[in-house]
C-alpha cells in the first residue's frame, strides 16, 4: 500500500524499440528538486490564504485585512459556495475566484456543510493539509485530468448525495467516502490512458498486471496521502481499514472498461426492484453508480460548461496521439486529431456511455428535477454536436473539388458519426 509519488512522469525504461518518455521534460517542467521546493512554499502560502478566506466564510472579520485586493474575489467565492448545490455551478469561475484552489476550498466547505468535521472529530489543520496534498498531486498541465476536474466531480457528487432517494439513507461515513472518492478519483493522472501505459511497458502497468492500472494507482496514492497526513489516525484501526477498502471500491468503479458490468447490475436491481438502501452493501453500490455519473457528467452540464470540458478532454486525447506518433507507436482510438473530430467523439460518448447510465440513474431517483434537467441538457448538447458535425461534413464536401478531401476521407468522416 506504500504510496508511489512522482513516478508517473517516466512512462517507460528503454526496452527494445520502446522509447524513454518523460512527461516532466515534455511539459517543460523544472527539475524535481525545484518542484519540491516550490510545492512546499505553495503549500504554506495556500494554507495562509485559506486561513484568511475561511475566517471570512465563517463570518469572522479579521482585525486587519491581509489581502485587500482579494476581498472582492473572496466575496464572490463565498456567494458561489452558497449555491454549491445548483447544477449550473461554474467550476471554472470558482477556480479563478479561489486562485486555483477550487478543490481545497470546495472540500473544506462541503465537509463543514455535511457535519463531517464534527462527526469524525477531524483536526481542521490536518484536514486542510490533506486536501492540499490531494490537489497538488493532480497535474495542472493536463487539459482535462486535473484538480478542476476533481472539483467538478466533487460538486456533482454533492448534488447526487442530496437526491432524496439516496439522501434519506446515507450515513456520515457514506457521505465522507463519496466526497473523498470524488476528490481523489483521478489523483496523479499522467494525462494518458491505460492502453498507452501498457504498450509503453510503464511500471504501473506491470505493478497492477494491466488491470485498472490508473484507478489502482489513484486509490493507492490516496491511501498513501491519508496515512501520510494522519487525518484518520485517531480512529480505530478496523474503521480506517474499512474506509481504505471502500475508497478503493469506489475509485475502481470509475474504470470505463467496467461500464457494462455496473450498468447490467443496475438494470437488474431496477427491474427487480430489489434495492434495499437500508443495506450497507446496496448503499455502497449506489455510491459507486453516483461516482460513475459524477465522473462523466460533463455532457449533462449547460452547454457553455459542457463544451469546455469536451474540448479539454479531446485536447488531452490529441496530445497522447501526438506522443504516439512522435515515438512511432500506433495511435490510440480517439487520439488522432486528423481523423477523430470533437463532435464525433462527443456524440459517440454520449450515445454509448452517458445516455444509458443517466437514463437508469433518472429511473433510480424517480425522475427528480435534477435528473430531468441533466437529461435535457444531454439531449440539447448532443443535438448541438450533431449540428457542428454536419457543418464539418458540409465544409469538407465543399472543399472536395479542390482535392483537399478525398472520397475515402469523406467516407471516414461519415463513419465517425456512428463510432
Automatic annotation (TrEMBL):
Zn(2+) 2 binds at residue 186. It catalyses: 3',5'-cyclic AMP + H2O = AMP + H(+). Residues 69-392 form the PDEase domain. Keywords: cAMP, Hydrolase, Metal-binding. Signal peptide: none annotated. One of its GO terms (biological process) is signal transduction. SUPFAM superfamilies: HD-domain/PDEase-like. This is 3',5'-cyclic-AMP phosphodiesterase. It comes from Edolisoma coerulescens.
